[in-house]
Design brief:
This protein has 16 helices and 16 strands. By secondary structure, it is an alpha/beta fold. The protein folds into 2 domains: 265 residues, Alpha-Beta Barrel (TIM Barrel); 93 residues, no CATH class. An 8-stranded parallel β-barrel has the order 4-5-6-10-11-12-13-14, surrounded by 5 helices. It has a 3-stranded antiparallel beta sheet with strand order 1-2-3. The protein has a 3-stranded antiparallel beta sheet with strand order 7-8-9. A hairpin with a 2-residue loop joins strand 15 and strand 16. The longest helix has 27 residues. The chain is globular and about 60 Å long.
Length: 395
């Protein structure tokens, strides 16, 4: 069941291609403090902000059908350039009609640039001014990824929102290392902009870097705005710095970015991360956590988190969350979910993932409504109060 809001109906492929002259646009509808709610318009449909993007790493949100993801309330998915370029290959996806047709999702798709995954291959890569040469984690084959190649791959995939190619340094790092990496990313951002060109109906986002140093973040934001992008991401967070440090950066970094463009916080996060980011002016987020947690027996509910593998659920007839309308909560007991997880049945990951994605989208709908009505502070206070109570004990 979709959280309470009106959803635009996805158009056919013919309607999409006839609308390709339409430009990507962003409009703000309301603010509450630094929090914002609005709409991103694309030829493939509207994206209501603040928006959470489920992650479809390999052209699938694990354990979910695309239509099921849509039913949770998701307006947009994220695809992974690094994984798709290795398997099945961007050229193959293009021959088969593009990523939307390939995975049967006709709404917007954002693809990352591949930079973050390449960063994680520290022992398998060589970084130069030109780009990154790395060995595939799949078969060891050699690949060369540059800003130009990243733009080419994302064009072949057909993504609606394309991310500039950047380097994301792992933290902790010295300020000198972070500054060097950030300035390389800004040079790559210019090359990404040049290679992207003018593609009506598609958008290119730049990525702010700079670690946890305010001056570097401001320098990065100024460089990106001189280049000019359709949206701006705050990168280089959620990489081990902790929530306090992340919020410390978000207390000022979104303010360095244009008010009339979407602001995207990459790779975040837990529900309380999301609420804190929205309070600080973020419009878009993504994370693998809802689906990954579902596959490992973790469920996010209004009172916090449930570990369904725990023995205390074995005889519990209650739903995961008595206030949730997802299929897992309306049709199954905690006892059943405990049983199928312990039995390693596929339905366990399917139901828990559906529930988690539903919960995340319900949270986003609640945030949008609270911002629109000027009651965000009360919404956030209630959110934290419920989580502080903890999960209800067994009957």
């Amino acid at each position: 069941m979709v959280p309470t809001e009106t959803l635009s109906v996805p158009g056919s492929s013919d309607r999409y291609f006839s609308a390709m002259s339409k430009r990507f646009s962003f409009s703000l509808n309301a603010t509450d403090g630094r929090a914002r709610t609005g709409v991103i318009d694309t030829p493939r449909g509207q994206i209501r902000t603040p928006a959470f993007m489920p992650v479809g790493t390999a052209a699938t949100v694990k354990a979910m059908l695309p239509e099921s993801v849509r039913q949770t309330g998701a307006d947009i998915l994220l695809g992974n350039t690094y994984h798709l370029m290795l398997r099945p290959g961007a050229e193959r996806v293009e021959r088969l009609g593009g990523l939307h047709r390939f995975m049967n999702w006709d709404r917007p798709i954002l693809t990352d640039s591949g930079g973050f995954q390449v960063m994680s291959l520290a022992g398998l890569r060589k970084l130069t001014e030109e780009g990154v040469t790395f060995a595939s984690h799949v078969d060891g084959s050699k690949h060369h990824l540059t800003p130009e190649r990243s733009m080419e791959i994302q064009r072949m995939l057909g993504s609606d929102i394309v991310m500039a190619f950047d380097e994301c340094p792992a933290l902790p790092a010295t300020e000198e290392e972070v500054a060097k990496s950030m300035r390389l990313s800004m040079r790559w951002a210019q090359r990404s902009r040049d290679a992207f060109g003018d593609r009506p109906g598609h958008a290119l986002f730049g990525i702010m870097q700079g670690g946890v140093t305010r001056d570097l973040r401001e320098e990065s934001a100024e460089a990106l705005q001189q280049i000019g992008f359709d949206g701006y991401a705050v990168g280089g967070l959620a990489v081990g710095e902790g929530q306090e440090a992340m919020f410390g950066v978000l207390d000022y970094a979104p303010g360095f970015l244009p008010e009339d463009k979407p602001r995207y916080l990459m790779g975040v996060g837990k529900p309380d991360d999301i609420v804190g980011a929205v309070q600080r002016g973020i419009d878009m987020m993504d994370c693998v956590l809802p689906s990954r947690s579902g596959r490992t027996g973790q469920a996010w509910i209004h009172r916090g988190q449930v570990n369904i593998k725990n023995a205390r659920h074995a005889d519990d007839p209650r739903p995961l969350d008595e206030n949730c309308s997802c299929p897992a909560c309306t049709g199954y007991s905690r006892a059943y979910l405990h049983h199928v997880f312990r039995s390693q049945e596929m339905i366990s990951g399917m139901l828990l993932t559906w529930h988690n994605l539903h919960y995340y989208q319900e949270l986003m709908a609640g945030l949008r409504g609270a911002i629109a009505e000027g009651r965000l502070d009360a919404f956030v206070a209630d959110f934290h109060a419920k989580r502080a109570e903890g999960d209800i004990e067994r009957l």
